[in-house]
């Protein structure tokens, strides 16, 4: 079916003031101001009250953490003590609670305008071996695109790592399950709904051997690689003490410096390291809210982009954000980066929109999403400016960021409406909230 999203109030696409035409799951035409589609359409959606963005793409999250938001054990702590406080709670995760946590996170993301999400799940206590399968089920049920990062930890406290023994797995178990989920779920074709990434958690929770073998396995399946890197100064100190090298040198020695690798946070890279990342085509997911909550530092966003490194946005974990709203993350990115660079012109509203769409797509190694152009997937986020906060706004696109938009009115994924009138059709949010709230009590 050919759909014309007609005459938007604003749109992030060149020569498309008259709207955009999708044929099934693919964009086929941009309509200039005052124009009409070149071929007949089957349906018209009047977008005169909507600002149209490419579907937002979240490149780093931990869905299970919706169960431990604003937890008293972890409030007002930096990363290492924050993790030590929460690991014992997360060790209680079971399949039913994880399913609710994933459903809540994906629903929040969809309602904020997110059409593709990457989740980094690295906790596999006994009984939770099906964590990746659960995430895939929930993404398919809601109709959102997803890169499920099969995370891993094999370096526990008894080995000199940070996580407790009960949440780690041995290398053979990790690699066997990684190959299983790649074989079952990973679809590298354009337009795919589910992809798998391999994602050893961090330098202080995995061995270099697991990093290297994960890279080799991902290469066999044309799958991306993901990990946390350069998030805190504690991490730098750990790597220097244990390995005698900085985190990026460790990454390079294990075969990760290549396209289709993207890193979460990337705060403590030197300018020289930014150049190395850009030359290798390694992406970085900027997580401004989490970095602020945990006081981790400022990501060198401008230096990374100038070096050629793909730069995306992520909300990070719902226990370090403490939310899953990607549209809100754009405003936080704008404010934090202007503060970092001490310049109002350093980063613009359109810059952070680009990071959350085109840049995030590049981080995930995808060339079929992230922009509104013929041949791209029909993924859109549509926002109304009818709340009081937008009254008097003159630039509708910039207003989304500057005036603080946080909820989409319509969201389309692959040509199908997944959010209509600000709600997910068929989903009882009140019932979900009750069930999830009861589950969260078990982690008090």
Automatic annotation (TrEMBL):
<dbReference type="InterPro" id="IPR032466">
    <property type="entry name" value="Metal_Hydrolase"/>
</dbReference>
<keyword id="KW-0378">Hydrolase</keyword>
<dbReference type="GO" id="GO:0019239">
    <property type="term" value="F:deaminase activity"/>
</dbReference>
<dbReference type="GO" id="GO:0102127">
    <property type="term" value="F:8-oxoguanine deaminase activity"/>
</dbReference>
<dbReference type="InterPro" id="IPR006680">
    <property type="entry name" value="Amidohydro-rel"/>
</dbReference>
<keyword id="KW-0862">Zinc</keyword>
<dbReference type="InterPro" id="IPR011059">
    <property type="entry name" value="Metal-dep_hydrolase_composite"/>
</dbReference>
<dbReference type="InterPro" id="IPR050287">
    <property type="entry name" value="MTA/SAH_deaminase"/>
</dbReference>
<dbReference type="Pfam" id="PF01979">
    <property type="entry name" value="Amidohydro_1"/>
</dbReference>
<protein>
    <submittedName>
        <fullName>8-oxoguanine deaminase</fullName>
        <ecNumber>3.5.4.32</ecNumber>
    </submittedName>
</protein>
<keyword id="KW-0479">Metal-binding</keyword>
<feature type="domain" description="Amidohydrolase-related">
    <location>
        <begin position="51"/>
        <end position="417"/>
    </location>
</feature>
<dbReference type="GO" id="GO:0046872">
    <property type="term" value="F:metal ion binding"/>
</dbReference>
<comment type="similarity">
    <text>Belongs to the metallo-dependent hydrolases superfamily. ATZ/TRZ family.</text>
</comment>
